[in-house]
Amino acid sequence: MLRAALILDGAEITQWQKDALDAARDLLDIKIVLSCTNSRTKKNLTKNFLYYLLNIVSLKNRLTRKVRLDRQEVPVVEFDSIYEGSWQRIPSSVSKEIADSNIDVIIKFGMSLLRIDEALSRIKILSFHHGDPSCFRGRPAGFYELLFRADSVGVIVQELSNKLDAGKVWAICHSKIQHHSYKKTAINFYANSRFLLRKALINLANNRPVDIEPNGKNYRLPGNLLVLKFFAILFARKLRRIIYGAFYEKGWNVGTAGKIEIKDRLSFDPVDIKSAKIPASYSFYADPFFGVDGSKIRVEALNLRSGLGEIVELDAENLTLLNILLKGNHYSYPFSFFSGNEEFLIPEVASHSSPYMLAKPFQDERKILLRGLEKYRIVDSTMLENEGRIYLFCGMNSSASDCLYLFSAEGVDKEFKPHPLNPIVMDPSRARMGGRIIRRHGRLYRFGQNNSFGYGDGISICEITKLSGDDYEEKIVGSLRFNDACGPHTVDVFEDKSVLDFYVDKFSLFAWYRRIVPYVLRRAKGELS
């Protein structure tokens, strides 16, 4: 456990900072709180008035509200910083007190640019920055990423030095941009920030800095004209979103193709795959998976009348409907898993239940609850047996586009325990599971949905380079896209065959109705709070 000091402004922190400390509680022993009493921000109201207005309605949210630090037993040292231009310096008497306290690490949540004196130069000082320094340096957080339609907002924990952006980066994540809303984008990257301090401390302890070049453009606060342009762009995006939701819907379908090779980029065209013919009672097919012998394909079929997903089986050769496996509630992502000479089905049931498996013939009386996961509502559960251990990859119902979680157990009937690096991936371009993990030439490859700009529009192929009960690493090695359609967002492979889903946007006067009906039905069942 690291002996730590905190730098705050006025002994207060924001909610997301408190959450970050709570997530790293088992790694930190906070010995002292340094409270700076004279931090101030110089404002140019004439030039940046509209930005400050935007800040109030967007960056000021439930995660940035100030809260008191609840550590009554920890001594608090108040001080006035010394200003050196735009930099602040801690008085030498306070610096010496910190150095004499045998502090291992300082977590900087307050003050502005910090000038580090000799007494503090021997201590690691960690600070958050909202922005990927390889693309976006400076401030404000998320503004320019949204303006220029970037694919994500980066967040880093970096080690400070007396040279701007020259310290080591100890953790990084990427957060999904809601391209129509600055406030929702900000809430998202602040929410994901709470996981990053723990990752940084683990990497620091193992001396594993992130390899990144901080050579992005250094941005400044936007002037009034640029903020007006920003408002206009977001208004247009929001209007397009409303029109799409009211009159357009995704026409999902599944199809089979040949063997998928791992390449930098692999594209499909719907005319190159064999597509299913969807019965009149269903509006789409999606989330396809082969059964263990490859003769059947299970898919989510959206019931046209109820708006709820059902799990149905198709013949793998001609893609005709064979039978209905699950219906009545909302089911999707029918992942199948073979263990102990028995096949199990793990449907997504996050809307109405904690996760469970079904043994053949996949009926309720064959339900097996996943031990250790009773308190979770998880999506896209994908199991992998590797070196005698069962791993379960999944997303949480509230954050699946950004965050991938990993649990493991000694067997399918044993207790699943969370991975210490959870969430193991934080990146909208690959976090959400998009199919079965496959083995090729002794290597493991994971399909991750690319949800950076829209749901289900492409797959990132990730090679898993480290997998154990306490370590995980992966890297992107390829991608899958359709040429004249959107997708895939789920892929499965059996021997020399593959099955994928895709969609095209379809105009419909009743698209709004089909969105409202399942929402009302699920709310009536108590599945939505």
Keywords:
alpha+beta, Rossmann fold, 529 residues, seven-stranded mixed β-sheet, five-stranded mixed β-sheet
Q: Could you describe the 3D structure shown?
A:
It contains 8 helices and 36 strands. The chain is α+β, with helices and mostly antiparallel strands and 529 residues long. 18% of the residues lie in helices and 39% in strands. The longest helix has 24 residues, at 224-247. The radius of gyration is 25 Å and the shape is globular. The protein folds into 2 domains: 2-222, Formyl transferase, N-terminal domain (Rossmann fold), CATH 3.40.50; 249-524, Tachylectin-2, Chain A, CATH 2.115.10. The protein has a 7-stranded mixed sheet with strand order 5-3-1-8-10-12-13. The chain has a 5-stranded mixed sheet with strand order 16-34-33-32-31, with no helix packed on it. Strands 26, 27, 28, 29 and 30 form a 5-stranded antiparallel sheet that branches. The mean pLDDT is 92.
Layout of helices and strands:
Blueprint: E1 2-9, E2 12-14, H1 15-23, E3 28-36, H2 45-58, E4 66-68, E5 76-79, E6 82-84, E7 87-89, H3 92-100, E8 105-108, E9 113-115, E10 124-130, E11 136-138, H4 143-147, E12 153-159, E13 169-175, H5 182-193, H6 196-205, E14 217-219, H7 224-247, E15 248-258, E16 266-268, E17 274-275, E18 282-290, E19 296-303, E20 309-315, E21 321-326, E22 332-339, E23 342-348, E24 356-359, E25 367-369, E26 378-386, E27 389-396, E28 403-409, E29 417-418, E30 425-426, E31 438-440, E32 443-449, E33 459-467, E34 472-482, E35 491-494, E36 497-507, H8 511-524
Parallel strand pairs: 1-3, 1-8, 3-5, 7-9, 8-10, 11-14, 16-34
Antiparallel strand pairs: 2-4, 6-7, 10-12, 12-13, 15-17, 15-36, 18-19, 19-20, 20-21, 22-23, 23-24, 24-25, 26-27, 27-28, 28-29, 28-30, 31-32, 32-33, 33-34, 35-36
